[in-house]
Amino acid sequence: MNGSASAPLIEVKDLGVRLNTSRGPAQAVRGVSFSLRRGETLGLVGESGCGKSVTALALMGLLPDSAVVSGSIRLEGSELVGLLDARYCKLRGNRISMIFQEPMTALNPMHTIGRQVAEPLRRHTGCATGEARKQAIALLDRVGLPDAARRVDAYPHQFSGGQRQRITIAMALACQPDVLIADEPTTALDVTIQGQILDLIADLVEERGMSMILISHDLGVIAENVQRMMVMYGGTVVESGETNAVFTRMGHPYTQGLFRARPKLGARKGTRLTTIAGTVPELADLPAGCTFADRCGIVVERCRTALPPAVDVGAGHGVRCIRTDVSMASAPRAGA
Amino acid sequence: MSVFLLRRILTLVATLFAASVIIFLVLDALPGNAAQMLMGADASPDAVRALTVKLGLDQPLTVRYLLWIKGMASGDLGNSYVYGTPVAGLIAERLVLTIPLAIMSMLITVVLALTAGIYTAANHNRFGDVGVMSLTQVGIALPNFWFAILLILLFAVKLQLLAAGGFAGWDDGIWPGIKSLLLPAISLAVVQAAILARVTRSAVLEVLREDFVRTARAKGLGKREVLWRHVLRNAMIPVMTVMGLQFANLLAGTIVIENVFYLPGLGRLIFQSIANRDLIVVRNCVMLLAAMVVIVNFVVDVLYAFIDPRIKVANL
């Protein structure tokens, strides 16, 4: 734990991921750069297939063997891209942890929850079975699993979705990681449970001084839970900045479209939901220029020639668009 | 657990009952009179009638069936029409060979299949996977009696390591007996192992795609640890199901293989009894085979509950 407080915990530079899909090679992520300080929270938002989960899996070193990762991911200065799996295993679940989207299938149905929560402890801290079990009970208690001491020997199928997500959170936190990656942690849950789980995650992040990367397709979840955010589309970051700054001045036509497309409470019955015209481009054949060009309302010929650079439109607020002058003149504002 | 077990036991008894009725009716419906067959075509009708009464064949169908069931319960299966000795003794004598043969063959099957299945799944789409899977394809296409003859040519004729046939018995210790059953057991096992290896491979591959495998990796477990600790137990259910079904195939296979290797086992007894129209022996042997298959599958069902914690609850 060296370095000053301002040194980044995680530094990602020009991350690229090429996946081999059934439709041929696909550049799932390109040119993604960001850094995350200790205790900082970052949100990744975008539609399915935009590359946000692939980015997370790249950080975890859990992409399929056939994936080609380029660029650099540094954890406290040490390079993770190209790290041997055996050495990566010492980081996963120990310094970087991840919570997944599907609590119903993320737990092994054949093992007791106590064993599964204790597994990272036994793996990384080398503590004995009895001690690991005691710690597992304490963790399950902390994440709010009712009657943890009695239910520690129960199996996953005996719990509800929300309870199972609490169990996976306990598992991810077991070794006090520096970074928690939460990939759509509440998408599969009932709305009433979603808030509870997000509050729990927020409390734990604060309490343990962890950094967090929260992935969601839900702008509301991002707005309420992270300090900084990145909007991803077609494998690239189209907009990034302080959450407040982005929501007050949305720069990219895609971010604006995403914001307009959210369902609104109080809208009159029969009002059609606003959508973004067109569909997400196939990653296997992305256009040469701006990935959003085909769906953009203010597209010009120049947008299709090359991938636009990120333009700084305010303190640390970057927008990957060459027409911010037009787009930001009519930007929607949160709360407006 | 007790409700689960009770239900399975009831199913077991019902299946055995159904099997006994079918076996009895089918053998009874065969054309020809056993007494006539035994005495030859030119026996006097009086003598044939006397023998029919002596064998109890003049009694009504239900009475004969109930007498058979009663006999099975008391261990008295009657006497062989041909040898005149108790059927129970004849069968017991043969089981000493056939049960060890079946066990050896099942063991070889399981060891070969699990090794090949797990290895190929762990090396999915790599050279080793493609190679071993091509071999299993050949294995499935092999008739076991033909493969048995190849084994005899290689190990008995060419290398002269093992006997070409016959059974050494258990009197001189365990090794000579096992040695004489080795080639037959391998011949029976190879085809079954090829099928089971493919089932194991696809079961493991399917579990490897599950979300909890990624969770286990995210906790810091290596690929190998994930395979042994998380994947295999989940993959065992389909593998065990197929193993239970293969046991029936294995018993059917002994009829052919025991003939190829001149082994005095149950399969050979059935074969000879059919040829001799010794129906009382056939009936009891077939019933025994059916019971073995049903019981093995019952054991498999009970093992599911030990492997998968969800099954107990689902059936309570």
TrEMBL record, chain A:
NCBIfam families listed in its UniProt record: oligo_HPY
Purpose of the protein: Involved in beta-(1-->2)glucan export. Transmembrane domains (TMD) form a pore in the inner membrane and the ATP-binding domain (NBD) is responsible for energy generation.
GO CC terms, sorted: plasma membrane
Keywords, in A-Z order: ATP-binding, Cell membrane, Membrane, Nucleotide-binding, Transport
Localization per Swiss-Prot or TrEMBL: Cell inner membrane
Name by which UniProt lists this protein: ABC transporter ATP-binding protein
Organismal lineage: Bacteria, Pseudomonadati, Pseudomonadota, Alphaproteobacteria, Hyphomicrobiales
PANTHER family the record matches: DIPEPTIDE TRANSPORT ATP-BINDING PROTEIN DPPD, OLIGOPEPTIDE TRANSPORT ATP-BINDING PROTEIN APPD
Similarity annotation: Belongs to the ABC transporter superfamily.
Membrane topology type: Peripheral membrane protein
Sections of the chain in a coiled coil: none
Residues covered by the ABC transporter domain: 10-259
Gene3D superfamilies found in the cross-reference section: P-loop containing nucleotide triphosphate hydrolases
The organism of origin for this protein: Bradyrhizobium ivorense
GO BP terms in the entry: peptide transport; transmembrane transport
Pfam families: ABC_tran, oligo_HPY
Molecular function GO labels: ATP binding; ATP hydrolysis activity
UniProtKB/TrEMBL annotation, chain B:
Coiled-coil annotated residue ranges, if any: none
Sample GO molecular function, one term: dipeptide transmembrane transporter activity
Matches recorded under CDD domains: TM_PBP2
Broad class of where this protein is predominantly found: membrane
PROSITE patterns attached to this UniProt entry: ABC_TM1
Entry keyword Transcription regulation: no
Domain ABC transmembrane type-1 residue range list: 95-304
Pfam families, per the entry: BPD_transp_1 (PF00528), BPD_transp_1_N (PF19300)
Protein name from the UniProt record: Glutathione transport system permease protein GsiC
